[in-house]
Amino acid sequence: MMKIMPVDQFQPEDFKTPPIQAGNEIEAAVDEIIACVRAKGDQALMEYAARFDKAEISAVEVSEEEIEEAFRACDEGFLDTLRKAKENIWAFHAHQARNSFTVAEENGKVLGQRIIPLKRVGLYVPGGTASYPSSVLMNAIPPKIAGVKEIVITTPPGKDGKVAPAILCAAKIAGVNKIIKSGGAQAVAALAYGTESVPAVDKIVGPGNVYVATAKRRVYGIVDIDMIAGPSEILVLADGKSNPAYVAADLLSQAEHDQLASAILVTDSEELAKAVQAEVEKQLNKLPRQEIARASIENNGKIIVAHDLYQGVEIANLIAPEHLEICVDEPFSYLGAIESAGSVFLGRNAPEALGDYWAGPNHTLPTSGTARFSSPLSVDDFVKKSQFLYYSREALEQAKDHIVSFANREGLSAHANSVAIRFGEEL
Questions:
Q1: Which residue among the candidates 233, 279, 322, 352 is catalytic per the annotation?
Q2: In which order are the strands placed within the sheet that holds 323-327?
């Protein structure tokens, strides 16, 4: 049962789900897997598929025939949903595209910045207890908009040696170039270092279990990564007019993800708090993933009764949740006060699932309180910036004395000389 607590017992540190951390045993296992993939390439991926996924595969790359088979297996209604969701996600992220700029100033100065897409990125798509075609769209569309030329997906095969049809269809619709049958730390290693079938990438994005997270930490520096995600989180800020059944359903939509997931209600109404508490129990009994959701609710589910909703906003900012719902009649009046949240869902008709699948904003979001300083996955994650500058001789001469003064102040005489020597003032 969700615990109800008064606001004076609130401690922010009690509400932050920790990022995935590995012990020494897991770290050693990941190091061994990475070394094996670097040494044996595709052969290691096939051996690990047999060992961990119980799948016998003769090739690690998904063939065009397998993709065609996946499209035949998926009904047209779902394919239409994927295509329309792609349109929504594309339309939102297109606004994030950046432009290079050049500024020409007096006396022959030219300054600027170039926006350069990464050459190749890798997307990790989890398997396990569920299949997530939505994550394929969310992770693949921003790099397409950024101009990334090659997108590679890795995802664990089923025991039949195949990838879930929904994943393959979403990947094809999103414009993915290559799909690899591999999961776990071995997939991350393959993306970072390359194998015969897997090209080495510049950046790896996407969530995974503790082995995946540990492997991403290990290869960071060889490649870039998006984040080390923790368990999913939702905080619902609701007034006394809210429908308790709706609020409970929204809380459970995250609780069913993971036993470690966090579902929190902050309200100014003790009556709503008790009604939601009862409604959560009622709805839990109907969920197919009841065992997972119940563990999440009992371990991490909390209801905080605040003095008013403005205090509720302060609590939300301290927790910095991955998902924040503001269930009131005038939600925009609170939006400006929200400082730390991955994605904000406004009003009584914006359940978190709307963002997971359909609306357009990304669902790969900062967790574990990192919304205080980090952002949702975006087009920015798939570009790099390079600066350039040009000075005429006249412009450099005007700056000469200032540069020499700076360099001498820092004790870097060769720096000073590299400017002075151009004007016959060698130091």
A1: 322
A2: 3-6, 302-305, 262-267, 233-238, 323-327, 343-346
